[in-house]
Amino acid sequence: MAGAAGPGTGPGAAGGDGDDSLYPIAVLIDELRNEDVQLRLNSIKKLSTIALALGVERTRTELLPFLTDTIYDEDEVLLALAEQLGNFTGLVGGPDFAHCLLPPLESLATVEETVVRDKAVESLRQISQEHTPVALEAHFVPLVKRLASGDWFTSRTSACGLFSVCYPRASHAIKAEIRQHFRSLCSDDTPMVRRAAASKLGEFAKVLELDSVKSEIVPLFTTLASDEQDSVRLLAVEACVSIAQLLSQDDLESMVMPTLRQAAEDKSWRVRYMVADKFSELQKAVGPKITLHDLIPAFQNLLKDCEAEVRAAAAHKVKELCENLPIESRETIIMNQILPYIKELVSDSNQHVKSALASVIMGLSTILGKENTIEHLLPLFLAQLKDECPEVRLNIISNLDCVNEVIGIRQLSQSLLPAIVELAEDAKWRVRLAIIEYMPLLAGQLGVEFFDEKLNSLCMAWLVDHVYAIREAATNNLMKLVQKFGTEWAQNTIVPKVLVMANDPNYLHRMTTLFCINALSEACGQEITTKQMLPIVLKMAGDQVANVRFNVAKSLQKIGPILDTAALQGEVKPVLQKLGQDEDMDVKYFAQEAISVVAQRLRKLDLPVKDSEELSTSGTDKNHFLRPRAPGEDARKVSAPEASAAGSQRGLALEGPGEPGAALLPSSLSLRRQLGSKCQQSVHSEACCPVSLPLFWECFLRGRLAVQTVIPVA
């Protein structure tokens, strides 16, 4: 819904004087009153243009009051308005007039929709930096006070985000008032306001004097951390990080840690989750001494929490916690106080917990060293590698390089590789599929020599799997391996094994050969494709199974752009033309598609193409083909079989809509020679009309010409 001023109101209402400068704002007002939300939104997005047209004075005196008083609109329109006003300072005359932008933004900061209020607060924070200290106290601080004491909770929540930007430049007396307003909001009756205050507590603490932090912020933190609403308490935990960075170790121990210990054992799992999620930041803020004394026991409790979400959040922080421990006592603490809890999480009942642990546990190997990794961590890695959850396995395989750097490839192959091989041959095809997807990553970490020795045979075995999804994934896997190891490796290792499958008794395996060639041709390049792959594809064109034959046509279409011109002209075209006469309709269809692609390839190379070899379907009727025309012969429509038996093509007939006659166009080669000529839609003569190829197709696509196939008539 959009409300607007009545007739004769609003900026530019005095348009009767004929002042053309009023027209832009009149357009704006009209669009703001339009029923179409998109038009109103577009109008708001053009406010800067309208303001430039009006000038700074009229923007201040007409446009901004109009926006403040008359607009009640859809949320997305108000959101755009709030965003626009944040960049309006230069359009109202600069910082000296920045206060003119406050009234509309103040109104937007009180609306019901949260995203609009947040954007308005963001713009207000931006504009506050452009106020002088005097203007700040004269205009901005009163706005904050009005919002903080507003009747609706929406205005009070918006005020919470503005204290920190106006406090540093305010006078001593004003600072005291600001702190008082913030204290009031922290104890507001409405939970939404207390949540907003708790979310800004840490930010506000950073701009306060240290004495004020101790005397006012810490008590507020304690109060909010024991609020009856868990949504308020969890936000207090987030503020604890900022507060802890401001206090000394002694003050931390006496003022903050009792509250933090209480939060780590809170009855609400959401509060405990927040403690776990912010644990690394808390650890850095409180320092090593308090970490050893207070945080490690709290972390142990979080790792064995009754809620899976809390355990998962804590598991994510295991590596960071261990890295931030004091070097001199790091190994002892991990082995004695952290690792026992990690071992329990490896077999946790919740897959999210196991996945979170698997994403970081490999990083412990670099911290604990080779001996501890082999003795204590490898059994855990092995258990996770065999886990039924695919995310757990992926996270382990994705980080194998961390372990490889510590224990070496030989030890890794002896311990973890047998488990990988076992999974690769698992009876469940989804398990096999998961391992295939990890294989390129694994190959890159282990190297080409190790891969050829241990894993190459697995990749080839997947190509003849009885499940199509496995064969398809294995084909894509080969392409990624070639991209990783190079074409020389492919030529010597992969391509020969793939081509042998072309003689397999199972037609599905023969088709897999074609799929592999499709995938490998681009990665291997022209030489390997032409010399090694193409002969096999051409040979398979005589396969007994139609599915294989039409996949041959599709393969030739796929690799056509890669092949050299000699191969296209001398080998590919004859085979495709033969397939184009196949008794199977699908084979014929895909052969004709491939012929079209090959012909386009040759045209790009600007090679002479025999007209009799150019077969292409009409844009309007796939059952008719372009047919040659000899001099002196008449034209008539023909069917596909007649077109197939045609001789050399001299031209095609074009009929304009509603035209009784037919215009004769020259063949494609002649068309290319006459670029730039004008198109004649109807020529009632035997002469070819000069038409450029691009113009011909443009006319055809626009429907100006109706292409008709023709055949000579004696």
UniProtKB/TrEMBL annotation:
It comes from the Eukaryota. Keywords: Repeat. SMART domains: TOG. InterPro entries: 2AA_helical, ARM-like, ARM-type_fold, HEAT, HEAT_type_2, PP2A/SF3B1-like_HEAT, PP2A_Regulatory_Subunit_A, TOG. One of its GO terms (molecular function) is protein phosphatase regulator activity. GO terms for cellular component: cytosol; membrane raft; nucleus; protein phosphatase type 2A complex. GO terms for biological process: apoptotic process involved in morphogenesis; positive regulation of extrinsic apoptotic signaling pathway in absence of ligand. Residues 630-639 have a biased composition (Basic and acidic residues). Residues 245-476 form the TOG domain. Gene3D superfamilies: Leucine-rich Repeat Variant. HEAT repeats lie at residues 24-62, 101-139, 178-216, 217-255, 256-294, 295-332, 338-376, 377-415, 416-454, 494-532, 533-571, 572-607. Residues 610-657 are annotated as: Disordered. PANTHER family: SERINE/THREONINE-PROTEIN PHOSPHATASE PP2A 65 KDA REGULATORY SUBUNIT, SERINE_THREONINE-PROTEIN PHOSPHATASE 2A 65 KDA REGULATORY SUBUNIT A BETA ISOFORM. Belongs to the phosphatase 2A regulatory subunit A family. This is Protein phosphatase 2 scaffold subunit Abeta.
